[in-house]
Amino acid sequence: MSIFPPVPKRSPKAHPSMEDIKCPSPNLARMHLIKGKDAIDRYLAMHIKGLSKQEAAAYRNSYMKNTCIDMLRQGYHKSFAELFTLIENWNALREASGPGSAIWLEKSIGDQPDKLDQLHFFLIRAEAAQRSEYYEEMYTNQLSLAHCFNKPEDRWLRNYFYEQCYKTAQLIKIDGGKKEAEAHSYMGLLYEEQDQFLKAIEHYEAFHHLTVGRMWKDDTGRTFNSLACEHLWRIYTLLADKMLRSKEHKQAIKILIKALEMAKEVGSKKMEGEAAYCLALVYHSAGEESMAIFHLNTYLEISRLLEDYTGMGRAYQALAEVLVSLGEVSTAITYLKKFMNIAKRLPLSQSLVDVCTFLGRIYNARGDYDKACEYFDQAFAGANAIKNFALLNETKVYCGIGRAHSLMLKVNSHTEAANQVNIKYLLAWKENRSDMCSDPFTVDAKYGESIEYVSTPVPKDTTWYIILHFKLYVGHTCSSSKY
């Protein structure tokens, strides 16, 4: 059954005469057309219970077009222009990126109703607040928009509204600068993410300056001043790291001294310890060993205070490196053994592997190859226990180098002797692949049938000797049930 009313039947009329079918004047025809259209609209409105013209247009138009029409009907022309500009900027960014880029596969803002709703709601509220010169409310709505777009693909929108917040915050004069300080922190974050550290520092320093002596707090209860100090500590450290890669040691030291001051101001011992550790590393790289030792001792004391055993391990290891560079190897070994004892009592497997590796390297450099092998084997066992395959491969290399150096001394001693007994021993060692160099007088007449050997002839090039022994030793070690 049709929902429309029945069409009234009409009897046919007689054919009109030539006078009747003459075209009227254009103005008269238009007037009759308008009158006829108005009559039809009135009839449809009175007799047909259907959609209004606005409702029909809402179904015909896209969501984007309806949103824009609604903004214009309410009189928010600036919000409409801002939304349209954002969509044009996105399209330009997409075209510049070209096919195949990540943004090329994303939907436009105009095709995402959720984002359009957020933009529509907050943009018109911000514009209404601006007309009334309620700049605080305008700032709040712009900040809400920035928080709506935190996903990686929407960062450009978030950054745009952070910039708008910063501009609006300059107009607020009744809060003592709180909103301005907050806007500076957001701008610093924006530039930090873009690796523009100098601009980020400029905004973070302004944030810090505005919060000195203030008790303003964020939603989590942290004071703005402590937050500003933390931001500055972090950005100073990042900038110093960048300078260090460019060999700008003096500038890096100056920046890290500022980072240490910020850490002390915020009152966080952990941050202070990290700042002292980074500063010590730069002093060590610059060759200022006394300052490096001073700051490493500071870091060590803070780690002890906080019972941070990982930090203690880093401090002991860094101190050992500095002391080795100064030739104080015995003191360096003492530091490392202290931490090794701590690491054995606590679940610090990674740290234990690091300290054993470092001790093995020290003994290897001193020529005490048996001791080096002992610590390299412990490092290998620790890496195998924690199933760290990258570390396992690294310790394999050290084990191979230590064992090769150990065997090299024994092989060289037999080679230099150059008597019949030592030559027989070397031949037996080559044929039977022994893992250890035994006493040459125990070799029997058949050149050591009872001895198991694992090696190759000694090449003149020591490097190749180490590589060959490393390959054989790793193959032997990995198949052993010991590990």
UniProtKB/TrEMBL annotation:
<dbReference type="InterPro" id="IPR011990">
    <property type="entry name" value="TPR-like_helical_dom_sf"/>
</dbReference>
<dbReference type="GO" id="GO:0003341">
    <property type="term" value="P:cilium movement"/>
</dbReference>
<dbReference type="GO" id="GO:0005737">
    <property type="term" value="C:cytoplasm"/>
</dbReference>
<keyword id="KW-0677">Repeat</keyword>
<feature type="region of interest" description="Disordered">
    <location>
        <begin position="1"/>
        <end position="20"/>
    </location>
</feature>
<dbReference type="InterPro" id="IPR051476">
    <property type="entry name" value="Bac_ResReg_Asp_Phosphatase"/>
</dbReference>
<keyword id="KW-0963">Cytoplasm</keyword>
<dbReference type="GO" id="GO:0036126">
    <property type="term" value="C:sperm flagellum"/>
</dbReference>
<comment type="function">
    <text>Axonemal protein which is implicated in axonemal and/or peri-axonemal structure assembly and regulates flagellum assembly and beating and therefore sperm motility.</text>
</comment>
<dbReference type="Pfam" id="PF13176">
    <property type="entry name" value="TPR_7"/>
</dbReference>
<dbReference type="InterPro" id="IPR019734">
    <property type="entry name" value="TPR_rpt"/>
</dbReference>
<keyword id="KW-0802">TPR repeat</keyword>
<dbReference type="GO" id="GO:0044782">
    <property type="term" value="P:cilium organization"/>
</dbReference>
<protein>
    <recommendedName>
        <fullName>Tetratricopeptide repeat protein 29</fullName>
    </recommendedName>
</protein>
